[in-house]
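pasting for ref. prot 1 ->
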Amino acid sequence: GARLYLKEHKDTIAGRKVSVDDDGFMTEFDEWDEDTAVALASSIGIELTAEHWKAIRFARNDYRSQGQTPSIRRASTVGGMDTKSLFALFSGRPATKMAYIAGLPKPADGS
């Protein structure tokens, strides 16, 4: 499959070596840090705000406890974030973009 975000095979993000899948999503939870998130967000045209960080931190904590990338519905119901706000923060495909920036696997529902 074609990479969604990283246009060429990049395994260095923000000066760090990282493992990515065929779509450019990070595959090793512990390789992510906040500098990596800023670089990933910038690569898809997003400048991170406090609200983005709230969603990213929820996604990472939820992934750590649940073992899967949260859906937008879960971010809304469990994370207490407004669905419309998530669509505004991560326009188009919010769960996918949130996961990408958070260094998580692509969500199963692909939203």
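and prot 2 ->
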Amino acid sequence: QRQSNLAAILNAVGQYTVDNRGALPPGISTTKAEISEALCTALVPTYLPSLPSDPKSNSLGATFTDCTDIDANDIKYDVVQDAEGRVTLSAPNTEDVDPTGTTPPITITR
């Protein structure tokens, strides 16, 4: 579910960028941060019917159609733009444990 949520959000970011002549939506910067109300507002409902959240977030996997309802830790998906302009979304709260005993995040970059 997390991977499909991240893919849907990243696809919406890509479509926003195409429609806005290469400009990324507000709420994406070179500092990793949780998806914000600003990014939600830019994407919902034009590019996504609702913004999904992580099952381990404060909202327990709910979706948001009213972006003003988003509070800290409601989404629990992070977004960042790298120096080359690529956008990475990540779900840092996965349950999978690798052989070293850590839980690597799920990430998608475009």
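The helical segments are 2-19, 37-43.
Residues 41 and 79 are 15 Å apart (CA to CA).
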